[in-house]
């Protein structure tokens, strides 16, 4: 394998899981350097659950270590005869007390910065200027999505893989005050981006995409993203922040068999931007299913963008396979001129669409309306080609 080109080595290493990659890194400096350089292209460390929460005093105490870290280990010290006489005169013991640090094994604990790799690394002048902007403008790490204050009580909570009773908390400076704190934040974010989570939930807070963009070099934007099988975002603010949807669109990857549940009610001034972010998620996400609940969007442009994309796109492989859209604000939705197999029932419209470049790429569209006002209740769009034909949409 030493004599293979870099591309071939990367293709082989992509078949290994995280633990196997770790073993390969230990072989020698060559493989360690290779995996470190391309680690974002390889398997990630699995974690079960991830969420961001506000810890009150009682919860904060739960995460304090319950063990005594420092233990005294009394050992006999080999000393010379003269030193024994000297110790005797000063009434000093001939035994040496050694204090050693034991690793914490609490079910709930805070992760500290000592568990990071060395974060005292040099940074470019461009990155320094970006970080100084964060400090000067007091840009927070988090956005609130449930009318909680953004303060220093916020923590990232991790549940390690297959350890449902364990909770690990990461406390980061919410408003970074210096370059040293920016380095710590960057290191923790990088560690999170190297993980693969079973479920990520945003119920109280979500990461601020403006800060994440300033945290790394511009070239890293395509690689540095959170990765999960399932993602849920519930935004119940009186004034929901459009940047919450922007973070999911730009910095979240959901695996091929994954699901996204998004509950977000944009403000009228954000309708257009919200539709653009959601369109990006739906047409480039590449995962199995998305369910969107929205009670306020009255602009139906998103629906027609999706229909046009199905009919005219030259690449539908990255489009979400199954979409369930609960949009209370939509009224009448016009049928496409290319609609086939049209069935109009009481309160329901069914039809099929095909792509103009490949007629085998077909999609079923189902529109359900409310009986009392005739407004759209649910739109379901299902891919009817490839391995998705027999998929049963549950919502």
Automatic annotation (TrEMBL):
**Source organism superkingdom:** Eukaryota
Q: Which Pfam families match?
A: F-box
Please give the SUPFAM superfamilies that the UniProt record associates with this protein: F-box domain
Q: Cite the InterPro entries for this sequence.
A: F-box-like_dom_sf (IPR036047), F-box_dom (IPR001810)
Start and end residues of each F-box domain: 1-45
* Full protein name: F-box domain-containing protein
Native species of this protein?
Meloidogyne hapla
């Amino acid at each position: 394998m030493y004599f293979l080109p870099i591309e071939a080595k990367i293709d082989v290493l992509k078949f290994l899981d995280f633990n196997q990659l770790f073993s390969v890194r230990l072989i020698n400096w060559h493989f360690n350097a290779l995996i470190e350089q391309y680690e974002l292209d390889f398997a990630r460390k699995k974690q079960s659950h991830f969420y961001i929460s506000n810890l009150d005093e009682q919860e904060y105490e739960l995460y304090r270590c319950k063990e005594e870290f420092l233990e005294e280990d009394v050992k006999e010290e080999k000393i010379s005869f003269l030193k024994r006489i000297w110790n005797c005169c000063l009434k000093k013991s001939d035994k040496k007390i050694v204090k050693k640090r034991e690793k914490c094994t609490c079910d709930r604990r805070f992760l500290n910065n000592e568990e990071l790799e060395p974060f005292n690394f040099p940074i470019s002048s461009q990155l320094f200027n970006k970080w100084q902007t964060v400090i000067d403008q007091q840009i927070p790490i988090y956005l609130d999505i449930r009318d909680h204050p953004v303060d220093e009580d916020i923590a990232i909570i991790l549940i390690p893989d297959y350890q449902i009773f364990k909770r690990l908390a990461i406390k980061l400076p919410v408003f970074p005050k210096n370059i040293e704190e920016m380095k710590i934040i960057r290191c923790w974010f990088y560690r999170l981006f190297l993980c693969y989570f079973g479920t990520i939930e945003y119920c109280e807070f979500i990461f601020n995409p403006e800060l994440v963009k300033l945290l790394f070099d511009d070239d890293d934007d395509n690689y540095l993203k959170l990765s999960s099988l399932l993602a849920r975002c519930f935004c119940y603010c009186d004034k929901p922040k459009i940047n919450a949807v922007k973070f999911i669109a730009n910095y979240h990857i959901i695996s091929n068999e994954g699901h996204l549940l998004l509950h977000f009610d944009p403000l009228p001034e954000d309708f257009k931007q919200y539709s653009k972010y959601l369109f990006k998620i739906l047409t480039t996400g590449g995962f199995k299913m998305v369910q969107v609940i929205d009670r306020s969007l009255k602009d139906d442009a998103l629906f027609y963008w999706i229909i046009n994309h199905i009919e005219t796109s030259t690449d539908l492989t990255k489009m979400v396979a199954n979409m369930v859209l609960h949009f209370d604000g939509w009224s009448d939705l016009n049928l496409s001129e290319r609609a086939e197999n049209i069935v109009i029932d009481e309160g329901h419209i069914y039809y099929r669409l095909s792509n103009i470049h490949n007629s085998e790429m077909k999609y079923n569209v189902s529109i359900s309306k409310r009986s009392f006002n005739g407004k759209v209740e649910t739109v379901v769009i299902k891919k009817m080609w490839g391995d998705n034909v027999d998929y049963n949409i549950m919502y």
